[in-house]
Every structure is written in structure tokens, then in C-alpha cells.
Specification:
The protein has about 500 residues and is mainly β. The chain is built from 1 helix and 39 strands.
Length: about 500
Amino acid sequence: MRFLSCVVVVIAFFATIAPASAQDISLAVPITATLNSDTSDSYTFLAREGQLVSFVARAVDDVDVMLSVENLNGDIIASNDDYAYPDSRDAIIEAFVAPYTGSYTLIVESYGSTSGDYTLEMLAGYSTLSMQTAFDAEGDWQAVGTDLIDIPTLNVVNGTANLVQRGIDRIGIGVGVSGTSDVYYVRTTVDSITDTAGWRAGIVFGYQDELNFHRAVINYRGAWRIVAVRNGEEIVLRDWNVHPAIVPDKRDFTVGVLVNQTSFDVFYDDQYIGTGTDSNFSAGQVGLVAETVSAIGSEVTVRFDDLMITEPTFVDESPIFPTMLVANGTNSTVRELQQRLLIPPVGEMAFTLNESFAQNNQAGVSRFAVGDGRTATNFVVSARVSWVASQADLNGCGLVVRDDGNENYVLAYVDSEGGFGISERSGATFIQNSFNMRNDLQRPPHNMLLIVRDDVIHYYVNGNHALTLTIGSREGSIGEAVINFDAVNTNCQFNNLWVWTWQ
């Protein structure tokens, strides 16, 4: 162990043919199977870019199950084993974000010599199914109107909920269940729509009464929006947006909303299409929406086929920690970190830097502040780093955080021999170091991502979790670093450096 001293191609949906040996797995359809020792089962599933799904494998007998997701190239892009060890040897991949539209393979393996039966389920959103209804009975569902004259009706029959609304520009609501946490994913299937002049359909959430609720809706023109109704007044959070995923006047589709405290991600046919926020959001009931348009004689009937709510699984009051990140691009990475509960659902992009260079020819660490020396306490910083790495010279590049300008800082780095580490310096010495070697044999460039939250720093290299370290909590600047273990000339290049901050 070494320590520092003080010196795109778009793939057509459903186009990929799955291997004959693999079974298909679908949303919310449990599977029971048997694993022999040192064996594996393969399942294929189709997902759209940005789709959020979770996988749960639970032992029925004494088998110790492991889960992994492979992309089209056979690369593992998500995995989990013993999500709550030693209390449970079950496996959960929580909130997997599909990086492309197409086919994936889910692998279920037994650990070592264990064997036995297991159950497997793929869920929309998160891994705990808190509510699912196929509308085979009326239950507590009821219609709620926002107008005293044109009152909607709701009929639950033959496995569908039929919400009917009449009148000019009216909102019909059907409510019957409540969200039970600050974070949940609600999804419903629209089976069919009939109308006289046009339609809007979707999901209501945070419902308090007919004067206070939120809704996310799709319309017949192929657009979507999010609206809050507060004391009877409409407050548009995201106005009508046309999205290429939405097919105009398509009358069978799914709508999903991820409610993450005060942030709302909207999904159409399971593809992410946009986000709205409301700092005044309050929890409440969840339900269905059918709306008419501004036309005389307007009437619409929306037939909903099902509705489910999923919530994250927590271990010791903490969400399941992802060992791999899969998102492509800055915005999608921030969204994945939020959806996987690694960072809060709100924040802002502090700055971006497309390309920069740093150079040093002396032994030790050279630091270069970025972003006009601005400081932050809680943030994500990411960059693609590269340099000329040779076997003769041991050097590397990195990112500096919590730098107070007085030799107090934290350094995360990669080196030319495949090593990576985090070192915290206080004054003249490095007070703690954590170091490891990669086994992927990759050469530069490397994608570095640091999540700095209070007194903890999580470090990812090329999408894989590398290290976690408890560090001093203080405000400090962010910078680039050149690391020379000997006196050699090192030039580090940093591309797409960005910083996302929150309070």
C-alpha cells in the first residue's frame, strides 16, 4: 500500500433479439425459480432511456443470491449482493437508470455452494411495492370534482377504473390511496380514451382536497405539464412541453411520477420526459386525472388499467448504496444521483469547464483552484482526466475539495499504475489516506466523480464506487491537482469538469 507524503448510437426499441437461453422478465410479474450451487439464471428485459426500475431477488431456501445487469456488450453495469448483510443475504438493485433504449440481461447467481429456490421481481421505480391495484373492486376509490356543476364519475369494473368528466375545461379526479413516504414512484396504465373534442389524462399526487393538489398530465397533442393547485388557484410548475417520446393522440400509454420530497420526475411509457419542483409541496393522496378541453360539449372518458406505488428500501435508515453509476452526460448523472438518493432532489449547477490543463515538474501535489475560487460545503464534482502515463514514472491527476488555502484540503486521485486514493491533509501532514488498485487495467482517461456531503466523501472512478471516507466538514474551494511521486514533468488535462451544489 502506498500513501502520499507531505511533499452515440440510438438503438431502436424492441429491436434486439434476446439469446434463446434467457427468459423474459416483465414489470410486477414475480418469478420463482431454483438455483443449483455455482450456477446462474439469465433474464432479458427491455427498457427505455432514463427508465427507472428495481430488481429484488429473495431466497426461499438457503440460497445466497447475487444480481447483476449486463448491457448489449455483456458489460456489467449494475450489481448487488447481500444488500443488508449480515441480516439478509437477499439482493436488490435499487433504482437502476437505463442508459439506452433497448435490451438488457439480468443475471441471478448463487454464491459459492449455496442452492435453493428464490423469487425474483422487477418493479417500476423502487424496490418496495407499497401498493398495487388492478381495479377489481371499488374499495375506497371516489370521484372528486373541482366544479360544482360538472361533477365527474368513477366506475371501477372489470379490472378498470373509468373516470368520466364533462364540461368546458374541467378536471376530474379519482383518489383512493395515499403516498406513505417522502419518496415514492407512482405509475398507472391508461388503457383507452374516448372524447368529443380532445383530452388530458394523468396522475394526481399530494391531494389534500379539491382545492389543493398536484397533477401531471399528458394531452392529445403530444405534450405534458405539471400543475399545482393551491387554494383553488392553478400554479404551473412546468408548462406544456412537447416531447419526442409522446405520440400525439395515442390513447394507450403509461404515466409515472417520481415524488422525491419537493421534486417530481415525470415518465411517459416509462421514459423520463421532465421534472418540476415545488418547495411548498405537502404529502397527500395519489390518484387519477381525466380532463376536458376548452370546447362546447366537451366530454372525456379515461379507462385506467392499474396503479402501483413503490418506495425505496432502507437499511438502518439509509438507502441502498449503489456500487455503480450508469448515466451518460452531466444532467443525466445529476438526475441519477438524485433518484438514487445519493444527493438531495434540489440544487444548482455552480459552474462548468469544458477543457483545462494543469502542469507540474516537482515532486508532491500541485493544486489549481477552479470556478473563480468559489467555496462550497455540499456538492458533486466530476471531470474526465487524462495525461501521458508511462511505466517509468509514477504520477497522476486528481481533484481537490474542501481546500481552505492553508494546506488543509482533501485530494482524490488516480495514478499511472492503476491506483486510486483519497488523502486528507491538515497543515504539514496527511492525516489519513485510503488507497487501492483497480483490476480493470484501464489507462487514462478516467472519469472521476466525488460526492461531498457533510463529513463524508464518496469517490467513483469510471462509474464504479472506489472509496468512501469520513473527512473534516468545512467550506472550501474546489480545484484540479497534479500528483508527482517523483520529480517528473506531468501535464494533466481535464474535460467536462462540472460542479453541482446544494444547501
